[in-house]
Amino acid sequence: MKEIIKKLSNDFALSIDETELLASALLQKPRFALYLQNECSPELERHLRLKFTLLKNGVPIEYLTKQVQFLNYRLKLYPGVFIPRLETEYFVELIRKLIKFKPLKICEIGTGCGAIAIALTESFPDAQIVATDICELAVQNARENILHFHLEERINLLRADFFSPFKSRIFDLIVCNPPYVPRERIKDLPKSVRDFEPRRAIDGGKGGTRFIKKLIDEATTYSRNHPNIALEIDEEQTDELSQILQNKNLPYFFAKDLFNKIRYLFIGEFNKCKVPSYL
Ligand code: SAM
Ligand code: GLN
Question: Which one of 32, 54, 196, 229 has the fewest beta carbons within 10 angstroms of its own beta carbon?
Fold first, then answer.
């Protein structure tokens, strides 16, 4: 194995450390265990060389390892399903910190591999969660994760467009990380996102607010009085969204992510004073 690591490090212009770290992630074994394998099998070398080439061409590592760590959960990730971001881990933390009540019925629209819905079962142990996605591959991926963590009694998963299956359902809390990248900015995204992640998961139309506005409009129908909504958004959307929310007379505030960028919108019964100030 020492030989393979050395060759890969040379051929891909990586240090030995970097090569070991990548090989360890790709083979899903501890770094030291790479060297327990004494044989230099040509298949193993071919396998690693192919994966290193894909990585070099921008394929996200999560699509090669087919897994992603999200908060306390090691999730299965199908290539072609949106990769959960660290900003979204923090989003889940913020929801738990800021909400003023204990939600019992939660809806997550656009669940992808199920990350938010799964983590919310831990934040709100008494809640029932409905999670939807329009994409069949995402629904299959989320189903596998939900079953893996034995959460099928807690999360009801549906393939659906927005709220379409919920004629008269009422939710205490609606959570969504929508597609919100302004269409005109998609060309500026990193290649790994632009070329490999699903367009439908990130393309928010002109200005990026198409999905968000529809969700805010429809949420009232599925809420008791005023809706309680937690959303991820882009910082350039605050003016437009403020206008809409003021016109609707809804209480709201924006919050920043860990990189000091406005990234979240909380509408309804959330406590602005509890936004952590360690930035
Ligand atoms: N919740 C996941 C996360 O935070 O990692 C995935 C978020 S991804 C940004 C947006 C998701 O919304 C994608 O999985 C996409 O398939 C889904 N989506 C797009 N349009 C939708 C629609 N009309 N109804 C439901 N889901 C939709
Ligand atoms: N912030 C995401 C990105 O890095 C996009 C997320 C989204 O549209 N929900 O690509």
Answer: 32
DSSP one-letter string for the chain? -HHHHHHHHHHTT--HHHHHHHHHHHHTS-GGGGGG-----HHHHHHHHHHHHHHHTT--HHHHHTEEEETTEEEE--TTSPPPPHHHHHHHHHHHHHBSS--SEEEEES-TTSHHHHHHHHH-TT-EEEEEES-HHHHHHHHHHHHHTT-TTTEEEEE-STTTT-TT---SEEEE----B-GGGGGGS-HHHHHHS-HHHHB--GGG-HHHHHHHHHHGGGSSSS--EEEE--GGGHHHHHHHHHHTT--EEEEE-TTS-EEEEEESSB-GGGS----
Substitution site in 134, 155, 186 for ligand 1 pocket (most atoms within 8 Å of beta carbon)? 134
Minimum CA distance residue for ligand 2 atom 6: 202
For residue range 151-203, what is the model confidence (pLDDT) as tens digits?
999 999 999 999 888 877 899 999 999 999 999 999 999 999 999 999 999 99
Please tell me the distance between residue 226's alpha carbon and the centre of ligand 2 in angstroms. 27
